[in-house]
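Shapes recur. Our protein:

. . .
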Amino acid sequence: MTEQIALPKALVADLGARARAAAAALAAVPSTAKQDALRHIAALLRAAAPEIEAANTLDMTRATAAGLSNALLDRLRLDAKRIAGMADGVAAVADLTDPVGGVIDTAERPNGLVLSRVRVPIGVIGIIYESRPNVTADAAALCIASGNAVILRGGSEAIESNRAIHAIFARGLAESGLPADAAQLVPVTDRAVVGAMLTAEGLIDMIVPRGGKSLVARVQAEARVPVLAHLDGINHIFVHAAADQAMAERIVVNAKMRRTGVCGAMETLLIDRAYPHIASLVAALRATGCEVRGGPGLRAIVPGLVPTTDADWDTEYLDAIASAGLVDGIDGALIHIAHHSSHHTDAIVTEDAAVAERFLRSVDSAIVLWNASTQFADGGEFGLGAEIGIATGRLHARGPVALEGLTTYKWIGRGTGQVRP
């Protein structure tokens, strides 16, 4: 047992030491050099699309044989369009303003000492994720652009895809004159490596988990390194009595069915009892192939719905399934959301501006929307380029975490000989 534990710890120690050296070098690299490297990597990704797709086919074949769910298979799948989108995402990060060195604020003290808060990289970021191989590219690009080194630990189901994508980053960094160790991929699938990363104090400065509830729970329970948490997307849409019918149906269908396996998908539909088009709204959702599980009040209006259980209101389906129920106006919606929300993304559909503003103020989630689909919960849609994840906590960063969320700050003082009396 000791030997089994020692190997992952030694591996992480080696990765961490190399990452710290790369982070120190990267912190001093000019913005233009980082941006040029990312544009070069984006071009390499486009050119290597056939090789990446072939590697992904190996992963998909194994995952299908292993019985992974349709939602997980969708997250794992890479085709020419998705690879092109991945490359575009890397190029988009290169076009973003580099936050490193940015001055947050400056103040002059009465004694003439000038103090500034200046953005700096966090250092070494550990990303632990499942299924989605595009995270390899997104996370690496964001970390490089923000001056951080990154250690990537993807799921075993995507190992071939991740290796192919990481190889492009290593090549692109080296060809651009930047340290290849700035982006490292854990080369083994041993789950004990995750535990070693979570306790790598002094080597890894922050852990970002991206995956299911069990992964995030393990990270939060075992981590001795600060964690930027990304919890379940138990997202609600509340259709208020004053909602426009066509808009409500369009938003609800898109929020659930555009892509059911993403964390921004709607999982619970709350309908105001006074909304005059309840049956039509549910029918529009069911017409797309979505299974609607209804509470007792809703089933009385729309027969044939699958009855909800208590567990449904706290379930992230990541599938063509939604729980739906009636509530008594905005007060009922706020009570339900406060009790069941994962603080990810919640939305209201209404033409009543006063009700909408109350919802926006009262719902304690990282993203709160008015008359828009929850599927906009994405860094690219927020103008941030690729994202490292949606942070649902209350500290450091919240919502889509991109370049600025991967920096901290230090105080810089400029004096003229001041001494403290």
